[in-house]
Amino acid sequence: MRKGELTRAHMIEAATRLIEEQGYAATGLKQILSESDAPKGSFYFHFPGGKEELGAHVVEAYAEDFAQRLDAIFLMTDDPLAAATASLDFLGAQLVESDYASGCPVLAIAFEMANRSDPLRDATRAAFELWTHRMADRLVAAGHAPDAARSKARMLLCAIEGAIVLSRAYRDPAPFDDVKAQLPALLQP
């Protein structure tokens, strides 16, 4: 990776981590530059659309990373219940390990910016659609009807994102356990 590409990647990584922890609005450009060790002039070179463009790249990168994690989990098992449980276990452990600081930058950006920025709303919608589609495909492969699979995948995504929010608020992983307890009923074909 060339120096410019590396600088850009570091800014996206730093912004992702900061948005996970403190949200989009509370994450400033100065802080992103400091955390990424990037020179000030390089920000607008890499992101001429400013923070909004960077935010869209954060969403796209995180969406693809999480989609790859879902794919990897589904490669380990054809059982949607086992895959969903493993996903929840991973996310819950990640939250606990970060002392409830990390979250989902896609959720944070969607919550804060969906009514203020069309590009960020479009990026977050695309991320949620990607995850829903990946999970729905696996449910169809396991015998679920396509419409039911999409609805169940969206419900599972809502439950995952809600578990993240509640776990952070309570500083307790119990919401992940609550979701896991309801999975058998949700994921029956």
Number of helices: 9
User: Outline, from the CA principal axes?
Assistant: globular
- Distance between the first and last residues' Cα: 45 Å
Please bin the fraction of helical residues.
over 70%
* H/E element order: HHHHHHHHH
Uncertain stretches of 5 or more adjacent residues = none
Biggest pleated sheet: none
Quickly list its features.
single chain; 189 residues; mainly alpha; Tetracycline Repressor, domain 2; 9 helices
Would you give an account of this structure?
The chain has about 190 residues and is mainly alpha-helical. The chain has a domain at about 55-185: Tetracycline Repressor, domain 2 (Orthogonal Bundle), CATH 1.10.357.10. Helices cover about 80% and strands about 0% of the residues. The protein has 9 helices and no strands. α1 packs across α6 (about 105-115), α4 packs across α5 (about 80-95) and α7 crosses α8 (about 145-170). It is globular and about 55 Å long.
Q: Outline of this structure?
A:
Helices cover 80% and strands 0% of the residues. With 189 residues, it is mainly α.
Helix-strand layout with pairing:
Elements: H1 3-22, H2 29-36, H3 40-46, H4 50-76, H5 80-97, H6 105-113, H7 118-141, H8 146-170, H9 174-186
Helix pairs in contact: 1-2, 1-4, 1-6, 4-5, 4-7, 5-8, 5-9, 6-7, 7-8, 8-9
